[in-house]
Amino acid sequence: MPENLNIPDHKKLKAIYLVIVLHTMQIGVGIAGHPRVVFLESGRDSFISILIAAIALHIVIACIVYVLRSFDGQDLHGILAQFFGKWFGKLITFLFIIYFFLLFISVLVNYIEFVHAFIFPDMSSWFISLCLLSLVLYAVLGGVRVAVGACIVFFFGSVWMFGLLIEPITYIQYDNYLPMFEASPRELMSGALKTSYTIIGFELLWFLYPYLKDKNKVHRYSQLAMSLTILSVLFITFVSIGFYSNNQLEDKIWPLLSTIKIISFPMFERFDIVTVALWMIIILPNLILFCWMTSMSAKRVFGGKENYYMITVCSLAFIAHYFFDSRYNVNFFTNYVGQAGVIFGFVVPILLVPFAMYYRRKGAKQHAKQS
């Protein structure tokens, strides 16, 4: 049986931080293009697809917390090792490492596409990548408390950007929402699946749980974070559908960023350029914590120093971004990462619940015999 992670009290975090940290992990590059993606599947009934995804999300969070509480003090690797044995557990954890690394790359290459499309079309990708990865490495080398602290700072530094949608709201055409309830169940489910890439990132809970002090409050704060994310996605999708006509929304690759183009100030004629530049503080928490999850998982599987894995992850990501030299490649890659998110983010936690129930029942029987 794997040993519990003995985290010193001075390195532990309050559970209330989950509200901000989990939310910032979910709101990143995916939200910029989500309204178009879900609209292509379920049309004006996109809100129903989002609500279906929301129900699944809240159920999965409940499953994750149930499994974690069954093995208090363990992270995902420890739980998998307990369920499936040392070597098979490491194999499954290795698959998660690949998944987290692919998520890390997807965020990186999508933001590079943002910069190329809105600000500097001819700027070298390697320069953008090097700047981002340098900031990421600086944060993760400071440990999990620094990484979480950076996420909280970036959250309060970017939350005001929702106010940029006030002006687009005044241009909403309410006829764009009608007629409703025309999408088939298959289209609604397809829209819900397309929402997966936008709302993944909650897998952080598997690894952050041992670092939390008041574990009895983890469930409520995690569910609150999920509600905050779903409300944000619903709000942005609602504004995008009302602001654009059907054909316009289908043609906009990043509806959220394109919507902000109408905003202008005397000193900033193209405020969308400023928004894309500031979007960096939204995606940095994603990059920082995905890097931490990948390197920490690698340490649990292979041993060694975590810092070496952090440097390796950033170095490999810097090399990997060269393979995404077109929007088609980035979009193709992002779609497959979103599909992987359905399996690793939603399916795996549900599959682990029966094992946790068996473990609890077994532990209760052993306790009864000892009594």
Describe the structure in brief.
This protein has about 375 residues and is an all-alpha fold. About 75% of the residues lie in helices and about 0% in strands.
Strand element count: 0
CATH topology title: Amino acid/polyamine transporter I
Structure class: mainly alpha
The mean pLDDT is 88
- What is the CA–CA distance across the termini? 23 Å
Percentage of β-strand residues? under 5%
CATH superfamily: Amino acid/polyamine transporter I
What number of domains? 1
CATH architecture: Up-down Bundle
Count of DSSP-assigned helices: 18
**What is the C-level CATH assignment?**
Mainly Alpha
- Proportion of helical residues: over 70%
- Cα Rg: 21 Å
Q: Element order, helices and strands?
A: HHHHHHHHHHHHHHHHHH
Task: Enumerate the spans where pLDDT stays under 50 for 5 or more consecutive residues.
Answer: none
Shape: globular
Please summarize the sheet with the most strands: none
